[in-house]
Structure formats: structure tokens, C-alpha cells
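Please annotate the following for my students:
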Amino acid sequence: MNGVTPALFRRFPTPEAMAGAGVELEELIRSTGFFNAKARSIRGACRAIVAAHGGHVPRTMDALHALPGVGRKTANVVLGNAWGDPDGVVVDTHVGRLARRLGWSRHADPVKVETELNALLPRETWVFAGHALILHGRRVCSSRAPRCDACFLADLCPKAGVTVTARAGRGASGAKTGWIEDPGPELPDDDQKEWTMTLPGSGSIEVICGSMFSGKSEELIRRVTRAKIARRRVQVFKPKLDDRFSEVEVVSHTGMRLTALAVATSAEVLARTDDRTEVVGIDEAQFFDAGIVEVASRLADLGKRVVVAGLDQDYLGRPFDPMPTLMALAEEVVKTRAICVLCGGPASRTQRLVASTERVVVGAAGLYEARCRRCFDPGVPEVDGNLPFPEEEA
């Protein structure tokens, strides 16, 4: 396709010109295959662009998708590459194949694959991810003879749906090696194989901390959701004390939800973690007893990935135990920030709005709000307060 577009656009540089193109259009795109059907779609799309959009290419998924011959893949190509505002990852035959082989999706439907990739990958990487997967699919991970021996992802890739044969290439020893796509199920059942995003047994602790309304629970949900898409066994725990939004779910202030087990003590987290679990999520860790530190370390020592979210400071701006110790022991610490409701700057403190000397007063909007260092005043409760801005990571 890239080979024909320079001559095509030189001959028909505008939607108006292409809408009225004659048989010359078919000749210019003949080498791409199915050129008659493509020519009809091109003319139809250009006529619609002229009639409905004043000759300008639309900037929304709905408007692009309504054009003749334009599906989600093409619309995402235009939105991401022309306008820098993708609605999702571009999913063509290469992206779909690699998503299944990498264990990121078990679906053949491109829309379902796109939905899972959108949840798995940060939005700012969607355009690059589409290009990278397509190029890798063309040059290395082909359909019939993927070059796994030359792939830099070989040690991490579960090679779902790929079986070893003696048909292509040579390994380091000189023996013939190769891989072909198995015509059987796209992915084995979970009880046959677990697909991981990190090497098995490489336990770790990841701490997500910050003030209230800073996106801590949202980030925990995002990470655990990505692990689930990668076919990892996950369990999520929350303290029974925190029943603000749900007794059986972790719920962010923006409404994101994730099923969780509510437990009263840190010992219950360890006792109720299944031996087969690979990723353990712990929300609102500041509400647990000091034993949560030993529990998290024990789970990591057992090879599990432990993702912990919690407040790093209390209402007086002091370190909120046991979070400091967890942060010191963690392999990764991410500090999220909210928006100060007074000045609009990045907020790292939690302002209590009610008069109480209790360290733990469970609540959300109306009882607390996010403040920056300058606007934070722990000694002056403001009962009326201000409603917090929507949760945002700065």
C-alpha cells in the first residue's frame, strides 16, 4: 500500500479530485489486490468527506467509521497518525496474531483484541504499539514460520498457539529449528498453562502511594487488570474497615471497580492467598496492621508480584505507617499526585475537613480534599470544605 500512495496522491491530491476519479484509480491501486472493491470504497469515502465534512477528514471515530469502507482499524490509523488522538490500538492481522501469541488476548475478533490491548497498554503508547507490532509481525513473527530464534522477546513470549517443528531456520547449535502456528485452540485453558508478564518466580513489591484523590486505587486496578489480561492468576485484598463504596470491590473515586476480598487483619491476607496466585493486590494498605509488611515480603519471597496502594501521609502530613516501611522494601515506588482544590497545583497532602484527632477517619468527599504543600493546613479543619477535583495523576 505504501508503494502506491505517492503516485495516487500526486494524481488525486484532494478528496474532491479522488471522488470523481475514473478508471485510472483502479489502475493506480491494482497491485494492492481487490482493487475494484477498494476503488469503490475510496470514491464513496471521498464523496462523503466532501458532502458531509466540507472536504476535511473527520477527527472522530464515529464520523470516520461512518465513511464507506472505513472500519475501526483504518479509523484508528487516521486518528492516531494524522490527528495524534487514537481511539485505540490499530489491530490488523499482524497485531491480532502477536497479541494471541504473546498471551495478551485469546480472541480472533479484532474489536475484542483492541479492547484488551487498550486496557493493557498506556494510551500514550497506542500509536507506537500498533507500528511496532505490525513491523515485528512482518519481519520476525510471521504467520507460518515465526523466527523465534531471532526474536528478542523469545525468553518472555509464551508462544501461544505456536509449536516447534524442524522446518525453518537454525539455532545456535546448528540444528534446524522453527515454529508454525498450531491450528488448534488459540490459547490453552488456564489450568494447562499460565501466561506471565514477568519471569516466573521473580517476586516483587510495587507500592503506589500519594494523597487522597490522586489515583492510587485506579493505578492498582490498572496494573491488576493488565496482569489478568496476561493470563496471570490474581487476588485482590482490601481492609474490612474501608466499606465506603463497596464491601466486595476496590473502587476508585472515578468509578473503576475490581473484585476484592475484604479482610480484617494482615494475617488473613497471607492465609487466604492461594498458592497458585501470581499477582496479589492490596488496597488501602495504611489501614492494615504492621504485619502487612511481613506479609507482603513473604508473598514476594514466594515469587509473587505484590501491588500495594495506600496513603503515604496522614491528615497531619506525617508518614502513615506501615507505608514508609513498604516503600523502603519495594522494588518500585510510584507516587501519584492529585489536584489542589485551592490553587489547582499538584497536590500531595490530604486535608481533613472535620475536627477530629483520630488518625483514621474513613471517608471521602466532604471529609477530605487534596491540597498542595503551600495550601495544606492540618491545624484548621474546614467542615464545609470544597469538593475535590476528579482523580488525576500528575
